[in-house]
């Protein structure tokens, strides 16, 4: 997640680990105890490093090679070590000073993926951007090194932007204009391009070939126009849809490009269309206007150069972001000087969270970063105006470079459908071969009588001018070949082209009802369910594994300050709520007449409040002062004021300026609000100073430098100058990064000293906070001497103005002061569970779905959350894998398998053979029985176990172990153990490790997987899974934009899967089988007729009847039933989650059902043909009249067949089923009324005959009687769970229909 809390390194270990574990090596600090909390690396090829982001999610950096280039520095050192920079495509070696203890440090290599959102790198990361591509399934995690696009491989490769000189900027015409284009087609390219895209479907090519063959005279079975109708109809409908969508894109592009903005022209700002804006031009934007292109800020209406922007259009985040204009350029705007200067910036890239550039202005070289640029699509808020210079325009803006679509996914059932389509192709080939062979034999046997026999006469016998002329007889061999091709044309609908468009329409209808489901609407975020992919609705009914993130997915990602450890004392046990108006934080007094109030609902500890009101004399009081000063100052939160009226006790109304905070991190907001609740209120923040009200007294602190949080250091620090002119550094960070850089006097080896006791108590409190599920931070500070400050300031200015490796140099500079810290304390922040999470997880587990949680949080925090959300239970046997080497991980896995009697999933040849369609019992959760054997549909394990009662297993594994397991050949061992456990909890995992875990299951089983998350670091997991679900949470919309479905709360997943997933799977499964049956029964009827007409290509049905059969006559009922039919009510499905397992067993669609359907189809086709054949055998009925009977009979038969299987009748279902039969009869009347057709007037003669109607009724009864008897016997003696639940539903409804109150009902 990306919630803003610096936590443990994903590949690291717990802070309380033993000394035998590898120590984190230091990074270039002058202090002996200082450390960057990052691993020390060997010279390597294709290595990847994994870290944790600010919220605890693991980050990794991949290196393809390790360069030998050194960066010179002036650090004096006793001994040097090499550190690979995480900011370059090539790994540079930094020569840094380290302490002597580093000799004992163990070198580790970590793998994973980099989280783009927080990592301050200048390089694009290919997988972690908004529009990232799906990782290749065939790749294992160890091959997934993140690739960097280094825009500054050298100082000579930047982009030069001359301020207010667009002509000079683009003198080589290498920059694009600001016009954008999201449409696919133009008027000229629409037809060829759209047809090219549509014919990517092989079925369309098949029917195109069929239509082309029918144009040849020897093969003209249908009319040449009629044969093209089905294909043209499908192509036309699809083209209309695509054309309409592209027309909307054109309209949107035209509207966007023709918007206007103020551009500096001839010394004054004039309106100019967006599409004409060029790089280098100076643009002015007013409040609530949208930014037209990527611009570097030169000045704002705020004297301090602050601007607030909303990035919702870019990343979906609704909270305001702060951007700054450099103080050097603010004067350019405010003093009315000329706009001039040169900006050297990186080449366009997709990284929306980083920007590196320098500006040359008035002889100064000014560093520019991500906080100095505003991107296209953002809106200006709470700022009157800003002025900026365009650096990227049009298609080169970061927003447009990130506008790639998510990878498309194909339904698992559709892949199975293609397998059955192949079988139908075989049937088609066999039937055509039979017809061609029979024709050849007939011609051979009757070669001497072809002039007198029907079907194959060599001469015409008519009264017209053709009388006596010869047919075009091509010889026996060619006639056989032509007969084969003609049969293909006649039997073409055996491959149902209508099925493709039917499935699209059904999925569209299903998506509509899912979107409109009010029970999946989240009122808190005003977000309803979204269907972003229409291809995999039915997959929702077959999910076996759910891979879930924790923060923001299971939890609310709304942080609340709960506990504090200060000077070794724990606060927060006895809390007092300060949520009433009388308890609001009042910062009046010395602040002037204008009152400032901060609405606070933070629970405060009275003991801590009393401590903070003592004099600043005692050590404990000073530590508490620095503690809350760090909470209020060491952040990027911006205080914002809004004036309101407040009545007083004397009935007077005073103007009150209410303060609320804007920040990108929920953790930082929680800490700042907590500081305000305890009397340390942040009032003002600029680039140069901050103002804090300490118990009502105003304190102005000069900000000398800020080292923002990054994934390598895992901490944040700010250098401030106090009013007494003292310089102090305030630091907060993850415990693993902070505890290693404390002063030596805090070392646990000095157990008798007060600092050592404070550290020991703080570590104990940290462990307790984590066990309660709280997110933890460690707070420290240090006074800087003049020499230390001067050295740091010099390095800081040098690093800030560097274009290449700026982030690495800033980290190197931060290490100078982030050392020898005094431990102030620690914080515990609560991230509450979302509503309904425990109940949802319990229902999903009852439904046979395994829920795995993949999080970047600490192990103790994850376990605590797992217990609170009922993922873990106290009765479960926890199997914990915390390895720090390949050998240790192997031993832990093998020991666990041996202890719990888990056999290997590999066969004799050593290859995994676990893929099967129906027999997946090997994945069921084993249980340890009293005699030590594992049962409940598991593998036959043997051996003894220590447990004496039935116990489920829960696997808990950390990211460090996954590095070695997924990197080495230990995946099969992990798979065996993980699939034998009821619960898997992965802690400290990197984004690509999340994807690797998903791939581990996908590549070794046929089970459907679902990944759900809410942050950018969940994107790789979401795109790897068969179904990806995004949560519209607090962290933007990166996960939503990469997902297949999106919702507001995790609890909606229960209804999505158990209700809509079940319905969709049942509907689409039946839809596919029914379409196969519907077309096959029609084709087989034609086949029996051809066998009775000397294997000729003669037809009894008109061309239009054959074409309309699947397009008009029988298509509407299929679509309506596929959208509206329900086998069970939503209450029943939610009350009995185990009904969902019908999808796991593939009860609605499998090969057995396919073959049963084909046997039933064979029987019905025989009845359909031979009943009229024997009834009219001795009559004088003509072939066209018999064809009309067959046409209506087959439509009645397939619709009655469909009606037998409908479980939910509504008005529109009746209209579709019976209306389809009526429309068929009306069409036949119209066709038979046209004199030019050979079947002219036949229906009028037949409709008056009772035999005609009785024949249709007899066909339906005889054809469907075996099916009816089979269903009755099967449901009586072998009822399915769904049938039993349906009968129970009917029995509950019956008393209501009779007016009797039922004994019980499902709520």
Quick rundown:
The protein has 1307 residues and is α+β, with helices and mostly antiparallel strands. The chain has 36 helices and 46 strands.
Which terms would index this structure?
eleven-stranded mixed β-sheet, 1307 residues
Structural overview:
- It is a single chain.
- The chain has 36 helices and 46 strands.
- Strands 21, 22, 38, 39, 40, 41, 42, 43, 44, 45 and 46 form an eleven-stranded mixed sheet that branches. It has a nine-stranded antiparallel sheet with strand order 24-23-37-36-35-34-33-32-31, sandwiched between helices.
- A hairpin with a 2-residue loop joins strand 16 and strand 17.
- Helix 8 runs parallel beside helix 26 and helix 31 runs antiparallel to helix 35.
- The longest helix is centred in the C-terminal third of the chain and has 40 residues.
């Amino acid at each position: 997640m990306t919630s803003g809390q610096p936590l443990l390194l994903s590949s690291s270990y717990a802070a309380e680990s033993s000394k035998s574990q590898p120590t984190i090596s230091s990074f270039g600090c002058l202090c002996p105890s200082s450390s960057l909390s990052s691993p020390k690396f060997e010279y390597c090829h294709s290595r990847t490093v994994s870290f944790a982001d600010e919220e605890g999610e693991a980050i990794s950096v991949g290196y393809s090679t390790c360069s030998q280039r050194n960066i010179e520095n002036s650090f004096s050192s006793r001994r040097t070590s090499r550190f690979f920079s995480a900011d370059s495509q090539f790994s540079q070696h930094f020569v840094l000073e380290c302490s002597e203890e580093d000799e004992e440090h163990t070198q580790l290599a970590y793998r994973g993926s980099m989280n783009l959102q927080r990592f301050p790198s200048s390089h694009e990361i290919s997988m972690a951007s908004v529009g990232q591509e799906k990782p290749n399934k065939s790749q294992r995690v160890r091959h997934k090194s993140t690739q960097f696009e280094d825009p500054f491989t050298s100082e000579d490769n930047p982009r030069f932007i001359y301020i207010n000189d667009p002509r000079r900027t683009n003198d080589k015409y290498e920059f694009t204009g600001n016009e954008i284009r999201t449409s696919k087609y133009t008027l000229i390219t629409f037809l060829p391009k759209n047809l090219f895209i549509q014919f990517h479907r092989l079925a369309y090519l098949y029917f195109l070939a069929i239509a082309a063959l029918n144009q040849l005279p020897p093969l003209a079975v249908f009319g040449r126009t009629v044969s093209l109708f089905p294909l043209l109809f499908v192509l036309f409908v699809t083209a209309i849809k695509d054309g309409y969508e592209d027309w909307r894109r054109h309209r949107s592009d035209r509207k966007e490009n023709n918007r206007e903005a103020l551009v500096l022209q001839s010394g004054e700002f004039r309106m100019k269309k967006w599409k004409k804006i060029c790089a280098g031009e100076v643009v002015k934007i007013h409040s609530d206007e949208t930014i037209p292109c990527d611009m570097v800020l030169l000045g704002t209406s705020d004297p301090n150069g602050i601007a607030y922007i909303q990035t919702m259009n870019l990343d979906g985040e609704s909270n305001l972001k702060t951007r700054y204009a450099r103080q050097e350029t603010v004067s350019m705007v405010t003093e009315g000087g000329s706009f001039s200067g040169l900006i050297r910036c990186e080449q366009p890239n997709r990284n929306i969270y980083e920007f590196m550039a320098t500006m040359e202005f008035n002889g100064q070289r000014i560093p520019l970063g991500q906080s100095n640029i505003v991107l296209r699509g953002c809106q200006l808020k709470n700022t009157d105006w800003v002025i900026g210079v365009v650096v990227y325009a049009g298609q080169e803006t970061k927003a447009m470079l990130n506008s790639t679509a998510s990878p498309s996914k194909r339904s698992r059932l559709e892949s199975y459908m293609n397998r059955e389509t192949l079988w139908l192709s075989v049937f088609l080939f066999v039937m055509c071969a039979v017809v061609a062979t029979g024709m050849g034999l007939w011609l051979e046997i009757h070669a001497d009588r072809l002039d007198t026999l029907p079907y194959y006469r060599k001469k015409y016998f008519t009264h017209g001018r053709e009388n006596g002329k010869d047919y075009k007889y091509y010889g026996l061999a060619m006639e056989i070949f032509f007969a084969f091709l003609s049969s293909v044309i006649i039997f073409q609908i055996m491959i149902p082209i209508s099925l493709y468009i039917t499935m699209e329409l059904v999925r569209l209808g299903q998506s509509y009802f899912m979107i409109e489901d009010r029970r999946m609407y989240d009122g808190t975020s005003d977000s309803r369910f979204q269907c972003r992919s229409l291809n995999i609705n039915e997959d929702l009914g077959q999910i076996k594994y759910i891979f879930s993130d924790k923060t923001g997915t299971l939890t609310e990602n709304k942080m609340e300050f709960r506990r504090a450890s200060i000077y070794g004392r724990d606060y927060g046990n006895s809390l007092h709520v300060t949520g009433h108006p009388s308890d609001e934080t009042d910062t009046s007094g010395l602040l002037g007449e204008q009152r400032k109030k901060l609405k606070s609902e933070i629970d405060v500890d009275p003991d801590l409040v009393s401590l903070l009101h003592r004099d600043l004399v005692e050590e404990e009081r000073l530590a508490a002062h620095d503690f809350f000063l760090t909470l209020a100052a060491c952040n990027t939160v911006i205080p914002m004021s809004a004036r309101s009226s407040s009545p007083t006790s004397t009935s007077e109304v005073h103007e009150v300026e209410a303060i609320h905070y804007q920040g990108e991190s929920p953790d930082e907001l929680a800490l700042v609000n907590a500081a305000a609740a305890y009397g340390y209120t942040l009032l003002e923040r600029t680039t140069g100073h901050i103002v804090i009200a300490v118990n009502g007294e105003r304190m102005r602190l000069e900000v000398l430098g800020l080292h923002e949080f990054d994934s390598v250091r895992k901490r944040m620090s700010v250098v401030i100058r106090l009013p007494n002119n003292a310089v102090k550094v305030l630091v907060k960070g993850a415990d693993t990064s902070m505890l290693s850089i404390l002063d030596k006097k805090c070392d646990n080896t000095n157990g008798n000293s007060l600092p050592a006791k404070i550290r020991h108590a703080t570590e104990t409190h940290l462990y307790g906070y984590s066990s309660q599920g709280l997110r933890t931070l460690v707070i420290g500070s240090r006074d800087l001497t003049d020499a230390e400050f001067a050295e740091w300031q010099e390095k800081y200015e040098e690093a800030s103005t560097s274009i290449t490796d700026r982030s690495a140099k800033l980290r190197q500079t931060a290490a100078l002061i982030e050392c020898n810290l005094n431990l102030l304390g620690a914080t515990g922040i609560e991230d509450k569970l979302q509503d309904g999470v425990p109940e949802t997880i319990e229902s999903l587990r009852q439904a046979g779905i395994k829920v795995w949680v993949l999080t970047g949080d600490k192990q103790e925090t994850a376990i605590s959350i797992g217990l609170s959300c009922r993922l873990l239970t106290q009765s479960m046997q926890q199997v914990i894998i915390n390895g720090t080497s390949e050998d240790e991980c192997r031993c832990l896995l093998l020991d666990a398998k041996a202890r719990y009697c888990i056999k290997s999933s590999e066969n004799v040849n050593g290859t995994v053979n676990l893929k099967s369609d129906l027999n997946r019992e090997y994945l069921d959760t084993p249980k340890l029985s009293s005699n030590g054997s594992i049962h409940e549909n598991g593998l036959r394990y043997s051996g003894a176990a220590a447990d004496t009662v039935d116990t489920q297993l829960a696997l808990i594994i950390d990211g460090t172990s996954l590095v070695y397991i997924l990197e080495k050949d230990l995946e099969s061992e992990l798979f065996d153990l993980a699939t034998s456990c009821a619960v898997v909890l992965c802690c400290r995992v990197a984004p690509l490790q999340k994807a690797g875990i998903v791939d581990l299951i996908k590549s070794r089983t046929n089970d459907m997987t679902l990944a759900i998350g809410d942050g950018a670091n969940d994107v790789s997991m979401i795109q790897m899974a068969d179904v990806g679900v995004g949560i519209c949470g607090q962290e933007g919309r990166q996960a939503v934009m990469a997902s297949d479905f999106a919702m507001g709360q995790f609890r909606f997943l229960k209804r999505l899967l158990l209700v809509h997933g079940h319905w969709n799977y049942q509907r689409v499964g039946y839809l596919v089988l029914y379409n196969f049956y519907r077309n096959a029964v029609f084709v087989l009827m034609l086949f029996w007729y051809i066998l009775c007409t000397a294997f000729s290509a003669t037809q009894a049905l008109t061309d239009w009847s054959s074409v309309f059969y699947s397009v008009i006559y029988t298509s509407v009922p299929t679509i309506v039933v596929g959208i509206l039919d329900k086998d069970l009510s939503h209450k029943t499905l939610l009350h009995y989650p185990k009904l969902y397992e019908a999808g796991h067993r593939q009860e609605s669609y499998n090969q057995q059902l396919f073959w049963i359907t084909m046997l039933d189809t064979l029987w019905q086709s025989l009845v359909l043909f031979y009943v009229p054949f024997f009834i009219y055998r001795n009559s004088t009925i003509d072939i066209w009249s018999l064809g009309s009977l067959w046409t209506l009979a087959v439509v009645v038969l397939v619709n009655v067949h469909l009606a037998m299987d409908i479980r939910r009748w509504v008005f529109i279902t009746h209209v579709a089923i019976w209306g389809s039969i009526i429309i068929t009869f009306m069409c036949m009347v119209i066709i038979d009324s046209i004199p030019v057709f050979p079947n002219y007037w036949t229906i009028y003669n037949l409709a008056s005959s009772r035999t005609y109607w009785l024949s249709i009724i007899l066909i339906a009864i005889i054809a469907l009687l075996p099916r009816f008897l089979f269903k009755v016997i099967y449901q009586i003696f072998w009822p399915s769970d769904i049938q039993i639940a349906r009968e129970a539903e009917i029995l509950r409804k019956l008393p209501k229909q009779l007016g009797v109150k039922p004994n019980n009902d499902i709520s």
